[in-house]
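Example 3.2
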Amino acid sequence: MERIILGIDPGTNIMGYGLIHQTGNQIRLITMGILKLSTYNNHGLKLKKIFERTLGIIEEYNPDEIAFEAPFFGKNVQSMLKLGRAQGVAMAAGLYKNIPIFEYSPKKVKQSITGNGNASKEQVAAMLVNIVEFDEPPEYLDATDGLATAVCHYFQGSATKKNSGYSGWKSFLQDNPNRLKK
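Structure, written as tokens:
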């Protein structure tokens, strides 16, 4: 099996994303990055930028599937609403291009990468350095959060395609011991 997976960590100030290429049971990093939105005051303009950037990533890398980190339930209803809108416009870009979309809770993403659903962003980034093989985490951990969502989707398999993926980082490392840096 060969596919490209785009992972997105939606946000209204910073949207993180990461792309991986899967060939059989091997994955490699294509790219990861962020869309910084804090300079825009207008929420509608932020949503437009999220849609345009997501569409641009899709057109540049042609992913087969998109995985999203679901918004977590917070106490501030207005923040949740804004975050849901941000995720919605990013999803709309994928749906517009007929790409299957998947959603994972933040706990599920952290659990699949580190084995701990309560892991910190730093712990997730540190594990990804070993799993996907890159030198060091980027300045903004939102990028590794997006990448973690793509890797989580790879570990979970896919509803649209049969996959011999991994249930988590432990099973991945059992089959790929050389990927763990010492």
